[in-house]
Each structure stands twice: as structure tokens, then as C-alpha cells.
Design brief:
Number of strands: 16
Strand content: 5-15%
Oligomer: single chain
Bound molecules: flavin-adenine dinucleotide, NADP nicotinamide-adenine-dinucleotide phosphate
Distance between the termini: 23 Å
Structural class: alpha/beta
CATH topology of the largest domain: FAD/NAD(P)-binding domain
Length: 518
């Protein structure tokens, strides 16, 4: 075939991209800045477990080993599973470890020429005879650099690592005035388990955030320090963090991850009939949400702690903000070794701790751990050298990242992104995208015009804004995964209906094994 494909990153997405491009006859080179595969799973905090049930976080053609029986395997089991996938499909020989791609640059067409295009890359094809991507790769051990020139780049650089989201503070109100220490959850995760315990032991810790990293770290601090040094969790927004996936005994997947549940919401690009149906069924949509909310409220006793969220569960799942609550988390709140403190607008630092807006006294603190998430958008933007491409990929600050099928930017040729937009099972989602991309590279189908792609992106943006509220920038397809997969299947010429019989098609949840074969 002769076309050179570079994959940047050897986490789950990069490995999948490698496997599926190989299946189409390409010989990809995978650049991985770390010394091993697995991305985020290579180093996590001690208590990390998969929070997606194992059966939906699996490679479609490579089941979990029978030795793993837990529904939510721990991080070591997940990493072993990902590694055994790479060994099984003999992917390691394609990976260059300790190699960091420092900046990618497109050569071959002027910006004016690219602006004037109506088709992706000018022809709608994934490759071009004159356009190439050039980049510098640094060997992190020898510090030597090498230049590579390739025909296609697949960015699998991950979204939840490397670039932390650090809140901004006015001058004299930031960490510089604080006598204690401030770290990000990423730094805490980088420590070995004993060091992490020693680091927090005997300290008044404040954890900022109320998603998965914050919950787990607060729990670990409470395990180490107990009542003697309670851990404060400073949060902006209450969330529908889930105790389990069986609200009132009904599998959550039956309420949100089957075709029937998708009939209840308005879908990007739907026709009049589906739109009408979603409107007629909206009371049911509301009832499903209330059903789950009532269960979580009761099971965790949220009302007692003033922790009932203002937004709906539908918004939470539509934003992929489903964090599992560590077991006994609210018991710790009850006993007082975890203190929940709301800071609705902003907080700042003083010498001895943290000041919450509107309060006169400070929260006395020795150590602040910012579990405030990541700037995956910035990481993606910064890998481009061209400011024009940086602007294209970042899109408007008031919209979701403008990726067609969540993979391709209409105005950035010969390049795909895998693993930015989220779902509730990211391995499955990355695999679907890699299969779609491999078919595109193999010439099975062509992309529509740039205008059509942009229109489609706008429709998904409208969907995100309608159902994810202020979290639309998370670009979550979680609650519309089947509708999304249908589009990929149609592009690839696959039958989107994967179940046997109408009832199963409507009510059985979909997952990776539904797509084992084309
Ligand atoms: C602690 C944690 C737990 C999670 N749990 C779940 C879960 O339960 N369920 C779920 O669905 N999702 C979960 N996620 C989301 C998770 O991000 C995905 O499931 C998935 O593992 C991401 O894989 P990835 O390959 O896209 O990205 P990553 O795993 O982030 O891999 C990116 C790789 O790219 C490399 N890289 C980056 N930049 C460069 C560069 N310039 N040059 C060379 N290499 C580069 C990195 O070193 C890394 O190895 C979790 C995330 C975290 C952080
Ligand atoms: N499987 C696991 O066990 C596991 C463990 C860790 C992480 N993860 C995954 O990794 C990803 C990242 O998770 P994460 O918890 O690190 O980040 P996250 O999901 O992005 O959550 C960030 C948290 O920080 C808060 N926050 C952001 N900016 C803030 C500010 N300026 N002031 C106060 N609070 C602020 C947010 O509050 P608002 O909501 O109010 O904005 C939110 O509670 C997620 O996909 C998560 O599921 C999984």
C-alpha cells in the first residue's frame, strides 16, 4: 500500500488504531512517550477500579480472561488486560517507546488553498499525493531528535492526563500566598501507594472537586487520617454520583443504553417522526430520570447532607459524568472524617488555608489537592504547530470540539483524533471509531463535503447543549451511543441493527460484542 501512517499514543486508543490499520494492510508506526503501553492505566491512585462494568469495557474480539471475575476490575487487572491484547495481536513491534512527538506540521498546500476546499483534503480522500505531515520526535532517554514525514496521523494522545485543569486566581489570592502545599490529582496519582499515604498522613487535606478523582482521593485521605485530621471536599456542583448500576433493581443500561431509551431523546439529524416520538415520550424520559434520582437520593441519604443535585440524572449521563461513589463514602461523611463544603462560585487562598467566597473564616488546610480535571482540549490544540490548525481543532469556546463522527476535522486533512469525545465506556467507543477510521483509510467509503460535515457537527453540538447543559464541552455521546454507532455502521456499509428480533433490538442494551463482525 505504501502509505505511511503514524499513531501518536499507545494507550487503549492507540493500540486499537494500530490493530485496525494493520488489518487494512498499513504498517503504522506508533510513537509513545512513556516506556510502556496502557496510557492512563499505567499509574493511578491505589483504589482505582474500572467504573464501567467489565462486559462493556472490553475489546469486541478479545474477552476478559476467565481469571477476572469482578464486575469492576482494579487498575492492575485493566492494565494486564490491555497488555495482553497488545501481545495477542502482536502490536508491540510497531511501537517506538520513549518517543515524544513534539509538534506536527502539515506540508504541501498553502493555507489559502486549504481554505478554498469544499472536500476534505481537496478530494475527500484520506491521502494526498503532495500533502504530508512532518514532525519532530524526541527520544526521551537519549534526548536525540528525529524528523518523520508521514501520509496520515492518528492522534491518540488521551484526554485525562498530562495537562491539568488548574483554576485561575486573582493575584494575591492564589497558591502563592498559601503556607501549605498545592498539588493536582495527577501528581498524587503519580506517587507510589506508600508515598501517597505518607504524603497525606497527619495533614489537614482539602480536596477540590466532586468527580471520580476527588471522591477516591478524599476516601484515601480519610482511610489514612480518620477523624483526627478530617479531609475537606470543596465542591462547586453536587452530582448524581452512583452507588451502583441497579436503581431499584433495574439495570441502568436498560434505562439508558438501549434503543428504546434513545427514542426518548431528540437525536442529531433525526426525521420528523423520531422527533415527534421523542416529544411525545418526554414524560417517560422525565420519569426514568426521577426513578434513578430517587434511588440515589435514598440509597446515599443525599437529602440529609444537602447533596441532592439541582440538575437531572439525564443531564449527568448525557455529559458522561457518571462517577461511582466509593463504598462507605457517606458513612465517612456521617462520622466526620470527610467534610463536604460547598463553594458555589469561587474560592481563593490565604496564608492558612482556603477562603470560600462569602464566608469570613477560612478552611484551615495544610495540603490542597486539586482534583479539578484535565485540559484535554489544550493538549490536542498544542500538538499542532500551525496556529490556524490550532484554532480549527479548538473550535469556538462556546461549542463542542468540531469533529465529524467525533474523529475528523473537515479542514484538517489526513488526520484523525481518537479518544477525545467521551462515552460511558471509552474502550468500546475508541474501538468503534478505529474500525470506522480503518475503513475510511482502506477506501470503503468517502467523506461528504466539508459543509455537510460541518452541518453534522453543528447538530451534535446542539444535542450536547440541549442535554448536557453546562457540561456540553465534554462532547459526550454516552446516552446516544447506538444512534452514533448506527451512523458509523451506515458509513462502513454494515447493518446497524445487530440484535435478533424486534424486542431485543428495542430493549437489550448494546455493547462491544454486538459489533464483533461487520
Ligand atoms: C484514572 C482513570 C480511570 C478511568 N476509568 C475509566 C472507566 O472506568 N471507564 C471508561 O470508560 N473510561 C475510563 N477512563 C477514561 C480513559 O481515559 C479511557 O478509558 C481510556 O483508557 C483512554 O485511552 P486513550 O488511549 O484514549 O488515552 P490515554 O490512556 O491517555 O493514552 C494516551 C497515550 O498517549 C501518549 N502520548 C500523549 N502525548 C504524546 C506525544 N506527544 N507523543 C507520544 N505519546 C504521547 C501518552 O503517554 C499515553 O500513553 C479513566 C480515566 C482515568 C484517568
Ligand atoms: N475509573 C476510575 O476509578 C476513575 C478514577 C479517576 C478518574 N476517572 C475518570 O477520569 C476522568 C477525569 O476525572 P476527574 O475526576 O479527574 O475530573 P473531572 O471528571 O473533569 O471532574 C473535575 C471536578 O473538578 C471540579 N472543578 C473543575 N474546576 C473547578 C474549579 N475551578 N473550582 C472548583 N471545582 C472545580 C468540577 O466541578 P463542576 O462539576 O462543578 O464543574 C468536577 O467536580 C473522568 O472521565 C473520570 O471518570 C476514573
Amino acid at each position: 500500500m505504501g502509505k505511511k501512517v503514524a499513531i501518536i499514543g499507545a494507550g487503549a486508543s492507540g493500540l486499537l488504531a494500530c490493530k485496525y490499520t494493520l488489518s487494512k494492510g498499513f504498517q503504522p508506526i506508533v510513537f509513545e512517550s512513556a516506556s510502556t503501553i496502557g496510557g492512563v492505566w499505567t499509574k493511578t491512585i491505589e483504589t482505582t477500579k474500572l467504573q464501567t462494568p467489565r462486559e462493556v469495557y472490553q475489546f469486541s474480539d478479545f474477552p476478559w480472561p476467565s481469571s477476572v471475575t469482578e464486575d469492576f476490575p482494579n487498575q492492575h487487572q485493566v492494565l494486564d488486560y490491555i497488555k495482553s491484547y497488545a501481545h495477542h495481536f502482536d502490536l508491540l513491534k510497531h511501537i517506538k517507546f520513549n518517543t515524544e512527538v513534539c509538534g506536527i506540521e502539515y506540508e504541501g498546500s498553502s493555507e489559502d488553498e486549504m481554505q478554498a476546499r469544499s472536500l476534505w483534503g481537496g478530494s475527500g480522500e484520506p491521502f494526498s499525493s503532495k500533502g504530508k505531515w512532518k514532525f519532530v520526535v524526541e527520544d526521551k532517554q537519549s534526548l536525540s531528535t528525529e524528523i518523520y514525514v508521514v501520509d496520515f496521523v492518528i492522534l491518540c494522545i488521551g484526554r485525562f492526563s498530562d495537562v491539568p485543569n488548574i483554576p485561575e486566581f486573582p493575584s494575591n489570592k492564589g497558591p502563592e500566598v498559601f503556607d501549605g502545599e498545592v498539588i493536582h490529582s495527577m501528581d498524587y496519582a503519580a506517587m507510589d501507594y506508600d508515598s501517597a499515604r505518607r504524603f497525606v498522613r497527619g495533614k489537614q487535606v482539602t480536596v477540590v472537586g466532586f468527580q471520580k478523582s476527588a471522591l477516591d482521593i478524599a476516601m484515601e485521605c480519610s482511610n489514612t487520617n480518620g477523624l483526627e485530621h478530617p479531609c475537606t471536599v470543596l465542591y462547586k456542583t453536587e452530582h448524581w454520583n452512583v452507588p451502583d448500576y441497579l436503581p431499584w433493581g433495574v439495570p441502568l443500561a436498560c434505562l439508558y443504553l438501549n434503543r428504546f431509551s434513545e427514542l426518548l431523546v431528540h437525536k442529531p439529524g433525526e426525521g420528523i417522526l423520531l422527533s415527534l416520538l421523542a416529544t411525545i415520550l418526554s414524560p417517560l424520559r422525565w420519569a426514568f430520570s426521577k426513578f434513578v434520582e430517587s434511588y440515589i437520593t435514598k440509597k446515599l441519604g443525599l437529602a440529609k447532607y444537602g447533596m441532592v443535585p439541582k440538575h437531572s440524572f439525564l443531564q449527568e449521563i448525557s455529559s458522561c459524568l457518571i462517577s461511582t461513589v466509593p463504598e462507605k463514602f457517606y458513612d465517612r461523611v456521617q462520622e466526620g472524617s470527610i467534610i463536604l463544603k460547598k463553594s458555589p462560585s469561587s474560592f481563593s487562598f490565604c496564608q492558612e488555608g482556603i477562603l470560600v467566597e462569602g464566608e469570613s473564616s477560612h478552611v484551615k488546610t495544610d495540603l490542597v489537592i486539586l482534583a479539578t480535571g484535565y485540559r484535554g482540549d489544550k493538549k490536542l490544540k498544542d500538538i499542532f504547530v500551525s496556529p490556524t490548525f490550532q484554532d480549527y481543532i479548538a473550535g469556538s469556546p462556546n461549542a463542542t470540539l468540531p469533529l465529524y463522527r467525533e474523529c475528523i476535522h473537515g479542514r484538517i486533512p489526513q488526520l484523525a483524533v481518537i479518544g477525545f469525545s467521551e462515552s460511558v465506556s471509552n474502550l468500546y467507543t475508541s474501538e468503534m471509531r478505529c474500525r470506522w477510521l480503518a475503513e475510511l483509510l482502506g477506501g470503503t467509503f468517502k467523506l461528504p463535503s466539508i459543509k455537510e460535515m460541518e452541518k453534522d457537527v453543528e447538530k451534535w453540538d446542539e444535542y450536547a447543549k440541549r442535554y448536557s447543559g453546562k457540561y456540553y464541552r465534554r462532547s459526550c455521546i454516552g446516552a446516544l451511543h447506538i444512534w452514533y454507532n448506527d451512523q458509523l455502521c451506515k458509513d462502513m456499509g454494515w447493518n446497524p441493527r445487530r440484535k435478533k428480533g424486534l424486542l431485543a433490538e428495542l430493549f437489550e442494551p448494546y455493547g462491544p460484542t454486538d459489533y464483533v463482525s461487520s
